[in-house]
Recover the amino acids of this structure.
């Protein structure tokens, strides 16, 4: 067994040197560190250099970083916590400032502008230097405000508190050259339809995502159970479809969310799942919904209540396109999801109107689905948006998807290769690795012995061992945009949002930023990850995110001592 | 399929009659209800009648009930929520007051006095009447302050808010005759050693327990990882054994907790697990601990770190007895747990001192364990305390336990009969039904594929189907004191305490109060339980307890509609 740091501590604790853990998450792709403690000078400040007009959201981000450097108050996770460094800190060199600068152009766009660009053209890379000299200057350089922002996030993670208010880094000098993500899509999906989440819950989630450099918030905002999303021109959808007047995202709320996200380097992908998962629309537009609340629901839907858009009806297709258009054009993202999972054929077979519509048009159901999709996707493309769909649209149906369409793989990690084989881009969200809701028992009411359909629980370790490139050819690799962990909320609510998601959902954030190898060339692995994930979790708690303990605190303070020896 | 209430609502919603759900938890053992809405009169008050001196904790409880009747603001879980009753409420009769009285003696003891009596002699029964007449008087009668307190808890659950501040019951008249628990032990166990929980977290847990009439808080306060419990005369145990100076229960904290519990009808069973699970004592008393932090831990303990009290040493036995005595005599409970689970024999085989002690005394390890137990239990008995042990002490070791000893069954529900066969009283805490921590993945650091040892997750439905009397003879039934759900906290912390426990842990509270049958004579079952558990969960959320959603809100508002039809 490799001797872990805590055992070495028995002999070297007086020197305060226990530097085997680099508590950064996600691990930069390039990292060199020393063993010198450097504290922030009382006059420490953050400056921007060589930019003619600094974007307001970058100035705000700098301000938040300065606040957090003082307010995190995170003590190192070693036996003795911050006190182990007190002696060394008395004579430690001070860091006088951090300077941010952009390479090349003196004109920079806002973080939000950069974060909401096309997924293929975002610039998130940065370099960082933290010297060990007294009175030294740290630097972050990047090609964009978004890169500087990612660098600030790394910078914050380097600092600890000694228990008496001294803020310091303990691994100076730190040099990170050209850190940049392996994949542009590092996401988290939240379902706000099965149960409602307040804007404050979503903001807190975005804060957690920001801490691990996530780039995409996938907002599964409506579903068969409720319609909390205000659509301009269609107020009846929320008036009749939201759980209550207090459980609606107003147009102002939506702008607050996309702006809060964007200024934190996160693009928001809004999804209106179609044509399935739309039962609730029957409360305001029964004319557009087949098999609305049909019984037994098991015959018409994967979960109650049943109800799907009448895809063979031109009126329904146009109605759907109008909804999508009216909301999509208000959103900064270049992407919009039309969903497309779990279509129930029997619902349409039993629906007289759909059968009549099919007969009138001479189309099969699959042909009607294709026409429906051309209508909704055509609308999106007309306003410059790229469509995103669940995997069934690519793999199970006879739908023509344009080349730029992004496909979300969810049913099984085994299905990724079939998507790339069609030349389509994909996002990994496999239920067998990334579903955060699995393993909490059956939620259907009268099944006392049942477990969740995707048992067992997907531990952070399980998620962390996901291989984004498994069974893909070299030519298919560029089609992988990244991945995300997902929270479906049949059994979740604001009360357990943080605890079910964090720090677990950070696993994929590292896989898709760091890639397959650590800076020293070894493959990423749970043994290296665990102490860093502890650190992230404790820092999240300091920031008001209710991330849960991964182990007894005894283990968190003693890296390696709760591993199996055999 | 039985037509659920929400479907009937389609036709009768205008009458506001949807009364199939009696949203009480635990269900009283006797219940008659009507269909009349009764609102609280503006002058509504709660009076105590015929008691010469009303105990202060009963007065305080009444005050809290009055506050909650106004502050709960829980709207009924039906489509339309509180608004469905608005029309009927305008002309509804008003309840003028609630009168509490004690049958027999005019002298009553405090709730805390009654709640901390010997487990076999507590009086929790009560009768309740809520009339449907205008200007009527509701009554709660009982033999003790504790019975009145249980009645108040039921009374609170009868009231809802219509969304405009009108507080009302909707099932008057309500008559409950001689409701009393099927079992006296209805508990919840919290481990505060693997991870620390603040006094406020414990108070909030006691609040939740109180809502479901739980009677026992089992506080597994110390373990091998940390020793947060202040023991008078042994300050070094916490000074060296707590995670930090901020993670200690002071003597004052302990009194706050037992008083907060007692005045809410809850007895606190404190456990100091011995002789295993004591590694942390080596930080202050290495002389008493065998195999302290021995490596590999797998050879010496069920989880890290290894370390057990040197049970063959008379000095260690006396030290242990002193600790137990010094804390136990400060506690109101008549019970104290000496633990006794997961003893590791190899630890003692490898410990030179234990081997020398055994040789000197001529005892086998089992004989030494018996002597050790006689010392600790003798000390408890000398101060009037009943010992509580984990099942291994009764089933796996050659230890003589006195008849009054209470045994906790945890390894398997199958082991209960073996305990009663020995004539010992038991508390059900089987890991296969009642462990709240199962199913969250492996927490040992380097086991990426592992699941928890007690997979899968124990859903509320699973817990609810536990049969306390399975495979017991009629003669053995009186030996069953009740049961409890347990939270071991290797993967829990204050951040998920509420969400992992509630409303799940309420399942056993109903099993052990209501018993096997509902008031109408049918067997208790998850279909009847679900809407009531939803109601409890929503009420907990209103009171600041982060109980999680059991289903989409759509289902919670439509009883039966998320059941399988087939």
């Amino acid at each position: 067994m490799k001797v872990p740091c805590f055992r070495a501590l028995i002999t070297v604790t007086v020197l305060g040197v226990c530097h085997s853990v680099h508590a950064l998450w996600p691990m930069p792709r390039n990292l060199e560190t020393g063993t010198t403690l450097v504290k922030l000078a009382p006059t420490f400040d953050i400056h921007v250099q060589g930019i003619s007009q600094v974007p307001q959201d970058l100035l705000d981000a700098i301000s938040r970083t300065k606040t957090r450097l003082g307010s995190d108050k995170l003590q190192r996770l070693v036996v003795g916590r911050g006190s182990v460094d007190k002696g060394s800190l008395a004579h430690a060199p001070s860091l006088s400032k951090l300077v941010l600068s952009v390479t090349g152009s003196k004109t920079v766009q806002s973080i939000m502008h950069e974060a909401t660009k096309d997924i293929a053209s975002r610039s998130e890379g940065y370099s960082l230097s933290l010297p060990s000299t007294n009175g030294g200057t740290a630097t972050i350089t990047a090609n964009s405000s978004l890169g500087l922002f990612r660098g600030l996030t790394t910078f914050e993670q380097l600092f600890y508190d000694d228990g008496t208010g001294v803020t310091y880094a303990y691994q100076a000098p730190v040099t990170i050259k050209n850190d940049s993500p392996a994949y542009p899509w590092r996401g988290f999906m939240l379902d706000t339809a099965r149960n409602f989440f307040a804007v404050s819950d979503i903001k807190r989630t975005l804060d957690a995502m920001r801490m691990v450099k996530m780039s995409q918030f996938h907002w599964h905002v409506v579903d068969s159970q409720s319609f909390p999303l205000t659509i301009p021109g269609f107020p009846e959808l929320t008036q009749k479809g939201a759980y209550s007047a207090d459980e609606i995202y107003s147009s102002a709320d939506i702008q607050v969310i996309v702006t809060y996200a964007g200024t934190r380097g996160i693009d928001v992908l809004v999804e209106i799942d179609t044509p399935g998962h739309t039962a609730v629309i029957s409360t305001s537009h029964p004319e557009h919904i087949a098999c609305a609340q049909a019984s037994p629901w098991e015959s018409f839907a994967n979960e109650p209540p049943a109800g799907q858009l009448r895809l063979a009806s031109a009126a329904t297709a146009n109605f759907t396109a109008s909804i999508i258009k009216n909301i999509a054009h208000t959103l900064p993202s270049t992407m919009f999801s039309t969903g497309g999972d779990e279509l129930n054929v029997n619902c349409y077979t039993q629906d007289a109107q759909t059968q009549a519509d099919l007969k009138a048009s001479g189309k099969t159901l699959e042909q009607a689905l294709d026409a429906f999709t051309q209508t909704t996707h055509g609308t999106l493309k007309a306003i410059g948006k790229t469509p995103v769909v669940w995997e069934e649209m690519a793999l199970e149906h006879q739908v023509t998807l344009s080349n730029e369409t992004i496909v979300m793989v969810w049913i099984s990690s085994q299905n990724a290769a079939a998507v790339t084989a069609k030349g389509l881009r994909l996002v990994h969200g496999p239920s067998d690795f990334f579903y955060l809701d699995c393993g909490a028992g059956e939620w259907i009411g009268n099944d006392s012995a049942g477990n969740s359909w995707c048992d067992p629980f997907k531990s952070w370790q399980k998620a962390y061992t996901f291989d984004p490139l498994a069974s893909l050819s070299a030519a298919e690799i560029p089609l992988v945009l990244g991945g995300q962990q997902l929270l479906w909320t049949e059994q979740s609510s604001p009360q357990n949002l943080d605890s079910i998601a964090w720090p677990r959902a950070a696993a994929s954030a590292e896989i898709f930023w760091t890639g397959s190898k650590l800076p020293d060339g070894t493959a990423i692995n749970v043994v290296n990850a665990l102490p860093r994930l502890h650190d992230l979790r404790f820092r999240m708690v300091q920031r008001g995110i209710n991330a849960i303990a991964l182990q007894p605190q005894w283990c968190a303070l003693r890296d390696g001592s709760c591993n199996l020896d055999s």
